[in-house]
Amino acid sequence: MKIKVESEKIVKAVKKLEGIEIVIENAADAKEAILLFLGKAALLDPEKRKKLKDLQVTAFQRYETSAVDYKMVFLLEFIFDESVPADAKVAVIKEFQGFFSKV
Length: 103
Hints:
By secondary structure, the chain is α+β, with helices and mostly antiparallel strands. It is 46% helix and 31% strand. It has one domain.
């Protein structure tokens, strides 16, 4: 399962939880930032976190009005163990998205 997150949301989340302002230039930076706060209890409860096997991050640019007006967007692919039921996967992703909507 995949979701999209704008780089500004990730920067704001790190600022809120860690108190530092970061710069995200690529997918590796985004994944490092997400892993910083993924372990925080405020984001996912420990039982839900255990269901998440890995997280893959891919970067792409979304052009707003021209080639110079774009936003960096990251595609987050949540990788779960095969035994995790679909409703549990959805619960983890909803909680994750809910966190970003509050930032």
